[in-house]
User: Fold this.
Amino acid sequence: MDSLHYQIHTDRVIPSEKIKVEYLTCFLCKNILWQPEKCEECNTHFCKYCKKFSLLKSKKCPSCLCEYISKSADFYLNEDLKDLVIKCIYSMNGCNKAVEYDLLQNHENDCIYNEQICEECNKKILKKNYHTHIILCKNSVCNNLQIDY
Assistant:
């Protein structure tokens, strides 16, 4: 997944008494901030991608409507983001891992429950089953056989 297009819906966050998730969301997409930065004028935080997309339409901050000048996200906001524990996006495929914010993208890129497209038959196959599936495809077994994963 491209880091600029990364989105973390708030319901994937493991609840914590220590962190208030509503303070860690993007003004535009309402998801957990990803690679956050803020407007120098109003200090509103945005995901890097959301801000870039918004600035394609206008060079003004979507919050205060002043000229947007990017500033680094607040130190404490970044520290709170690092404390988040987030469920893997592939939980619907069977992954039961929850990892820290800073480790999430690497985990999801490597997750064995991520789907891949078989180059032989164009079916979606879980990464963990891919090698077995591709052997069957190359031997033409799956062309006549329905395989459920």
Notes: The beta strands are 37-39, 45-46, 70-72, 85-87, 98-100, 115-117, 124-126. The two ends are 23 Å apart (CA to CA). DSSP finds four helices and seven strands in the chain. The mean pLDDT is 88.
